[in-house]
Amino acid sequence: MTEAEVRRYAARALSELFDSLYEGAFAVDTGGRVTWMNHKFKALIGWNGTEAIEGQPIDEVLPHSQMSRVLETGRADLLDIIPLGRRQLTVSRLPLLQEDGRLIGAMGVILYDRLNSLRPLVDRFQTLQSDLDTARRELARSRAAKYSLAMYAGASEAVRTLKLKARRAAERDAPVLITGETGVGKELLAHGIHAASARAGKPMVRINVSAIPEGLLEAELFGAAPGAYTGADRKGREGKVRLADGGTLFLDEIGDMPVPLQTKLLRVLQEQEIEPLGANTVIPVDVRVISATSRDLKAMVEAGQFRADLYYRLNVLPLHAPPLRDRREDLPLLCDTLLEDIATRSGGPPRTVSVAGLERLAAHGWPGNVRELRNVLEQAVAGSDAEVLDLADFTGLLPERPPAAVPSAPLRPATEAVSGVGAVRPLRDVLAAAEQEAIRAALTAAGGVRSQAARLLGISRAQFYEKLAAHGLSD
Ligand SMILES: Nc1ncnc2c1ncn2[C@@H]1O[C@H](COP(=O)(O)OP(=O)(O)OP(=O)(O)O)[C@@H](O)[C@H]1O
């Protein structure tokens, strides 16, 4: 047989096979309008029959047909799967060409019901597709439920302005710097901004700069090549910046970043690339940086402790979260929100706070801000069965002398001890007692978190541990 004969016989065999296989078929012109459709196809898509289908755009008749792809490229799609309602159709798309090769339209063929051999594949595809849809829905729900700007409770003017600015920041991709004292909700805001941003589908990776020893911080942030330093993982380390690729990098306590690393971070912001420790290669990354600090970065810049160029790069969209003592009108709403969350997590009944209880809370200075409030509420809930928490339920949880007149200074009790009435005692004893009281107050405010207590007192962690030991408070 000659090649021409083989082609002729093959064409006839294929055409007969095609006739026996196809379930439904239609054709469109080069403008994507239906020129012909067989009855089976009309029945399949539920065409009512009263209106002529010819002349209708195929994209309206069969939304996922993707015939335009064949019309644009002139190439066949031999096998594809498209959704039709809850079903999946196995389809072929073929260009229709004249003898001179000019494209005059395209044909779509449904193979699903006849191609039994494809069934297992289609069934598997359907199962995977539905698993994927469910997983996507659950992920979206868990993300939405876990963090949103709406969760940042507060009705004061200051909080409303802050949330408005945060929402605007979420619409942009520039770096955000969140300032504010410990426990004011800087991390919550950062999560909320990420969740409301276009990067929400990608990870938000947090790194607490102050919690990682200086020697390990570089590898933790930028990654390390295998064996880059003594004790390095054999496989190397990916680094938080790369883990955040496509998403958001949240740098908590940025003010504690050592100066040499500030230079490397500047490179991430300027060039969007990193150089892992010991790697000798540069890796492109796409991250949005949100940083937070409870320190006065501007003053640190002036004192030469923080790079000015990095400060301006980080501070493109500044947000300041005010301390709780400056927005006491937020207390009722905050109590409701926090108590609801505490009840959901512990499975207990929902509680509220009485007016007298709220007045007592409002009289406190809240050096530990909302974190401290949450701790106090948690302890009050644990210590009482009452549905409405009253004045008595907070006894022992807050300092006895309401420091309303001395809102923010955790050292104030110490000062009061110095100026207290009574017998004159040796200065050394008075100072020691004041220091002990200040340490206890800071620990309460920080909910027992020692590094935060140290920060509240404005001393290093090492100094704090020394003082704990000196006062016999280590346990
Ligand atoms: N406005 C708010 N509404 C509801 N919860 C809040 C609010 N602000 C803070 N919180 C809660 O208070 C706690 C402390 O908040 P967060 O960790 O975000 O504070 P922070 O400013 O980042 O603190 P730090 O500087 O010590 O890291 C968290 O449990 C957080 O959910």
Indicate the topology.
Elements: H1 3-21, E1 24-29, E2 34-37, H2 39-45, H3 58-61, H4 67-73, E3 77-84, E4 87-97, E5 103-110, H5 119-146, H6 157-171, E6 176-179, H7 186-196, E7 204-208, H8 214-222, H9 240-243, E8 248-252, H10 259-271, E9 273-274, E10 283-284, E11 288-293, H11 297-302, H12 308-314, E12 317-320, H13 331-346, E13 352-353, H14 355-362, H15 369-383, E14 388-389, H16 412-419, H17 427-445, H18 450-457, H19 461-470
Parallel strand pairs: 6-11, 6-12, 7-8, 8-11, 13-14
Antiparallel strand pairs: 1-2, 1-5, 3-4, 4-5, 9-10
Helix pairs in contact: 6-7, 10-12, 13-15, 16-17, 17-18, 18-19
Bound molecules: adenosine-5'-triphosphate.
